[in-house]
Each structure stands twice: as C-alpha cells, then as structure tokens.
Amino acid sequence: MEKKENNMYVSTLGEGISFRSIRETRFKNACIAVHFLYPIERADVTPNALLVALLNRSCAKYPQYIELTRALCMLYGASVHTSINNLGSCQMMTVEISFMDDRFLPGEECVSGECADLLSEFIFRPKVGEDGFLFDEDDLAYALKNAEERIRSRINDKEEYASCRCVDIMCEGEPMTIEPGGYLEDLPNVTREELTRVWKKVLSTAQVEIITVGGADYEPVKEIFAREFNAIDRHCVELTPLPPYKEPKEIKDVTERMDVQQSRMVMGFRLPVQEPDDMTVVCRLMSSLFGGGPTSLLFKNVREKLSLCYYCSSSYSRLCGTMYVYSGMDESNKEKAVEEIKRQLAVIARNEFTDDEFEAIKLFAICSLDNTKDSVGSIESWYAFQIFDGCIRTPEQEAERIKAVTRSQVAACASLVRLDTIYLLAPEEPVETNEPEGGKDDESCQ
Amino acid sequence: MSHVSDRFDVRENTLIGETFYYTTHPTGVRIVVCPKPEIKTYYATFATKYGSIDNEFRVNGGEFTRVPDGIAHYLEHKLFESEDGDTFQRFEKTGACANAFTSREKTGYYFSCTRYFDQAFEILLDFVQKPYFTPENVQKEQGIIAQEIKMSQDSPGRKVSTNLMKAMYRDHPIRDDVAGTVESIAQITPELLYKCYNTFYNPNNMVLAVSGNVDPQQVLAMCDKLLLPRERLEIERRIPEDDGKIVQPFIEEECDVPFPIFQLGFKERWREMSAREGILSGLIRKSVFGSISDFYDRMIRKKLINPGFGYSSVDVRGALASVFKGVSRSPESLRDEIFEEIERVKRDGIPPRIFECARRSCFGAIISCFNYTEDIADNLQDDIMFDVDTFAAIKAATDVTVEEANELFRRQYDISNSSLSVVRRSKEA
C-alpha cells in the first residue's frame, strides 16, 4: 500500500519496515540507504562496529575487496558506505550506495539497476565461509587491527578527545557514554561467529527504514527489498525510550593534563527538554543563539570581544536533553571564560538579547533548512534522522515551527539549563610564551 | 559551444549540462557566473591571488619588500572589521553564512545563502574593498591568532606534514605555517597590512565567482555599481630559488602517538601543470597506489597500511610533489615497498583495465561536483586564478589514455628525490 506524503512516496514492506522514495531530478547523482534501528546493548557495540567496517568490503558476488572496488569504479565511481550512530538509547546502522544518475552517463549506459542489486547483495548475500559464518579469518584480522588502531588513535584529535571525556564524566552509566566505535577490551572476544550473531539479530529484529533519493524509477528497488525481507523471519523490537532527564546535583570540575600546547574546555549542561517534546525546536534555537556560529553570543563576546578563546561554540542534543559548550584557550583564562559563558546564558534566560540577534538566529535556522533540499545526501539524512520524532516533517514544515518561536519561549528554555560538568584538557607544564615553530602544510586556515 | 552575449563570453558544456558566463570587469576583476535555477543555495566567492607564500614582492618594478610570515592570514581576519562594526553582524540580517580562508596562494571571502542574495552580495563586495586597520584592532587579533597557531601545533598530522615540507624544501615558504608563528605575527602593524592590501587586493589580481539561481546580467549590473576602480598594478613575487632536489631523505620527530604517522613525498622540478596533466596525476596515484591497485591489496595483507592510507599532490608556485600519507607500523618498510612498486610500474606500465576503473570513477566525481553551487564557484574561481582550462579538465576525464599516464609516471616518480617524514612515540616510551 503506497501513499504520497508531501514529495515522498511511503510504503510499508513488512513488520517494522518502511520504504520512502523521494523523487528528485535536480541532481547528477542518486542514493539508496537502508537504516537499521535497534536499542543499544553494550555487549553488541564492539561486534557491531567491526561488522559495519567489514560489510561494505565484500559480498558473495565480490568476495575480495579489490574486485569490489574495481567493480564500483566501473560503475562510474559508485560508493557503498556503512556507518553506525548512537541516537539516545538506540543505535542506527546504515548501509547505503550512492551513484551517478543515469542521465549523465555517456551513451546509453545505465547504473541505477546494478547499484540497487549490489546494495541488496551486501545486505542479504554477504560473504560467508565454509563454516557458515560471515567473512573469513583474514577479514576479521584486518578489522581487528584497524579497530585497535582507530580506538587507540582517538587521542590524536584533542577536541574530540576532550568532548568524549566530558560526556564520560557527566553521563556515567547512561547510554550516551557508549562509544559506537567499540572498545579495546572487547576486541579479543570478537569472532566471526559473534559477527554472524549480531548481523542476524540486526536483520531480524531492527526497525528498518529504506530511503531512496534520485530521478530514477524506484519501484524495482522496492520490489527487491520487499522480496528479500519477506524471506527473513522477523520479530521487530520496540525501541527503548530516550534516557530520562537527570537534575545535576553538584558541578563536576575535572582537569586532566597531557602534552598539548592549548587547553580545551568542554562544559556539559542538562535541560529537561527531549523529543518528542514540542519545545525541542525552541531549545535548538536557544543553543544557536548561545553558541551556534559567528552570529552567536559566545562567538561575539567570548571570542571576538574578550579574546578569551580561539573557538567557543555550543551544541544541543534533542534526543538526550544535553547541551555542550566547546572552547580552546590558554589555561590561565579558564575561570574568566567559564564566568563569561555562564553570563551569556543568563543574558538569554533574562530575555536580554536583542531583537536583531533573535531574528538573525531564526533566519539562519530557516536558511539552513532551505539548504537541506540542495543535495541528495542531506535530503536523505534529513528524513533518516527524524525516525524518532513521532511524525515526519518536511524542511518547509520545520521552518514554519521555527517562525512561530517567541523570544520568551527561548528565554524560558535557557532558564531550564543546568551546568553539570566542566572538563579541561590542559598542558602538563605551565604555558610558556615562546613557541616553537610548527604548523600545517597544505591545509588552509579559516 | 561558445558565444558572446552582451558582455559575457558564454560557454556551455553539454557533458555536464552547465553553462558558464565569463567576463573581465572594467575594473580588472575577472568574473564567472554559473546559473543553477533549480538550486536554493546561492554561493559567491571573492578572492585574491595572494597567500602565505607571497612574503616578498614588488610593485611596478620598485624595490622588493619582505613582510612577516602569516600576514596574508592575519589580513584575512582583520578585513572582517570595518569602521561601522563587525562584518558578520551585517551578514546576520541576510541569513547568509559567511567566512574566509587563506591558503598558500589564495585568500578567499565567501558566503552562501538561500534568501536575500543581493543584500549579501553587496556586503561581500563592500567589506572586501574597504580595509580598516588600526593599532588597537590589529593588536587585539594577536591573542586569537596565537591560539589558532597553538591549536594546530597539537595535531600530530600537522607535525608530520610540516616536517615533510622541511625535508623537501630548503628555502621555499611552503615550509612555514600559513598562520605564521607567534613571533612573526607580533611584528605585524597596520602599515604593513595596508601595504599588502594595496598590493594584492588590486582588482586585476582578483576573481569573483557566483553560482545559484541568478541572472548573470544582474550580477554584472551589481558589480558595475559595487566594484571600485583602482590603478592597475604589476605585481612581481619572489620566492627563493629551488634546485628541485630534496634537502634530506628522512625526517623524524617524537610525539605521543599510538602508531607511527608518516608522509612520503616525491618531489618534482616545478613547472606549470596543464589541466590534462593534473587529471592524469590523480589517475596515476589512484591506479598505482589506490584501493583498486594490486599494490594496495598487497600492503593491506602485509599490514603495512590501513584504510586511512591516502595521497594528494602539492601544487603551489615553486613546489610540486606527490605525497602519500597514513598510519603504518613500519613506515620505512612501506617506503621500500613503494619504491619497488615504482620500479615495477616504470618497467611494466599501469594495467589498462585498472586505469579505466580510475578514469571512470574520476569522470563520475567531476560530474558530481557540478551539483553544488559551492564546488562550482570555488573550482571555476581556482581555474581562472591559476590558468587551468576547466573544459580541458572535463574532456581529459573522458579521453586520457594509459600511454599518456605511463609516460608521465616515469617522469614524476624519482626515488632518489623523495623524503619520508615520520612522527612516532619515543623508543624508550
């Protein structure tokens, strides 16, 4: 049964499986994405991470990676991506293929049909060894080695590292601390049998969202996935509710030292507004006004006016009801920066921002929504990330919600924000004024 | 297909289904417009051919001037201030997202927006043409830029690439950070900033590119109103002579990284690369060392590389090289394997089937670039600024041959002229 919602054709292919097709002829490329959504389980996190790292490297038709990459190149650079994201108390595992729109290929060539088939090969006919388990021992060794390198190398990106440390400290025992990329200590226990178990579990229990964006006729794609999923015995799981709001009791203030030149500070806040609360749209605007780019209060005051930080920005998670402020600074400025960041939040809570600032933030949010419609990838992820929201909105509908937000609603949201954790990653020794030579090569500076 | 419509040279490319409008404005600014009526995002970029390597120059045959490292980047930051306040605040009212960047050879100012294009365009052209440097506002920026420099020093990836440049180039300014050093930026004064501004922000050194739901004639009408005439200048840039040889074959630095990080560079004597050579160089790297190559497959099996293995080119005036980068448990063994592969490919050539894989994938990537107004305008602007024939590049992706690739490969990869840069944890640790 197919129905048309806005510019989208929606159908249900089975229990917990929906298929959405968005017809777009404005682009030179197209994509098909299959998203699997299921509750996070700590025991499955590491095998799931290894699974996604291997799923797009082979299938029964192309058992060796090199054969597969060559085949994809011959399809004019089609690419298969897999990813895994945490969404509140759930995870979303994605397998997607992007490819050129047939209209732009030389002569009578056509790749869309082959790409749809190939995507289904990855999902339904992965490479299986003689023992019946997924992949082979070389594949597993490869994935284990890369996972170890990737996990150990997290420390190289100091901003990301500081941000993860702040989440760990603030949300101890909550699903937000679960690392979708997996854990070092789990690696010795990951076997091909284990990978086979988690993949079967995902295929048979996850909620499935299939989304296509492009100019081609996607009826054949729908048929492929309807047929393939029908052959699987499925018992779809209920998604776990979002982590509940926790009022911070006392502010955790943690400093850790490392061989760095510059200190990174992350401040973690909580607020009792999460999906599907209608006020999440207000909180997003509040966070943008606070620290969302060069028009925000943090950028204008903490960075530009007081020169306390090189960067200072905020982000709000509508699923977790958390907000983080990220900054880079000299350690000696920490106290001043903390005070100024708190002061800017209080300015919003007291409704003392200017009308110009408020209107600019709204316009900015509306323009970002306009922008969502300008690429295949952003259209696809716009719909994918709304699965939790209870109802699917178009960017235009979301823009109407933003237009309706008032100043006093934004102030009220800011007054609900509570500081939970201040995390500082600082140099081992007091910072000296003479700097050694160093820097970047081919990258430019913003 | 090409024809002249009013003041534009109109060139249509049927392969990608786009039309470009080129003109040189009476002020000297070169302009290109690519209308994309079906896309909501407008993008405009106004840039000068001026970057971190342009530290020594003269105007109209006068005396050469040497300015502090990092001044182009500093100037970029300061141009956002004007007598009547901060430029970001002016953009706020249009909903545009504005920013700027400085690279080795280019400083670009740009915005994207989905509404109020005319207003945002006016602000862009206005602020880039109106410098406002005072001792106070110049002084204030030092703290912010010093923090930016420090932040980049915490990145092991930056260390490994800076060291590679030092191992390959004795005097070329590519050795230095785009942002300069804390010491060099301390020497920057309003007078020096004005000197650089008045030299390099001369209209005939600048290129303006626009893409989106625009009418080229209207863009030009706005330019007529907003672009300020200035006396044309002849700029002569000087960079130290380079003999084309590397300084040292190996450079190493200790740093607390879990696994060694490396970059391996093959230096070439500098020359202006044609659009076709640019495409061929990329195809060579992909077919000989990329994930479609037998070499890549072998190195993964030998556990000498991981999926982060990659490559790029250095193509800056006076500096030309191919660079391989990644994480490896033994960068030295990997280098030896790369050397062996180079000798083998020089002898046996690139397999034609693999080259065709690379070519098709490159064709797809080029076509896909023309989805996005940002990519279109940025690429067209670069092509004009650095004399690259856009149409020749697109055509090359359809008809380059493996014979051309083999011929270029033999010239490009000289094992005796390569440097390996490694950042690894100290052996005692």
Task: Please tag this protein with its features.
heterodimer, A: 446 residues, alpha+beta, Cytochrome Bc1 Complex, Chain A, domain 1, 2 domains, seven-stranded mixed beta sheet, five-stranded mixed beta sheet, 14 helices, B: 429 residues, eight-stranded mixed beta sheet, 15 helices, 18 strands, 41% helix
Largest sheet of chain A: 7 strands, mixed
Overall strand count of chain B: 18
Overall residue-averaged pLDDT value of chain B: 94
> What is the count of β-strands of chain A?
12
Stretches of chain B where pLDDT is under 50 for at least 5 consecutive residues are: none
CATH class of the largest domain in chain B: Alpha Beta
CATH C-level class of the largest domain in chain A: Alpha Beta
SS element count, helices of chain B: 15
Beta-strand portion of chain B reads 15-25%
Report how far apart the termini of chain B are: 64 Å
| CATH homologous superfamily heading of the largest domain in chain B | Metalloenzyme, LuxS/M16 peptidase-like
* Rounded Rg of chain B: 23 Å
Residue fraction in strands of chain A: 15-25%
CATH topology-level name of the largest domain in chain B = Cytochrome Bc1 Complex, Chain A, domain 1
What's the shape of chain B?
globular
Mean pLDDT of chain A: 91
Q: Would you tell me the structural class of the helices and strands of chain B?
A: alpha+beta
What is the name of the CATH architecture of the largest domain in chain A? Answer: 2-Layer Sandwich
Oligomer: heterodimer
Biggest pleated-sheet summary of chain B: 8 strands, mixed
Please give the domain count of chain A.
2
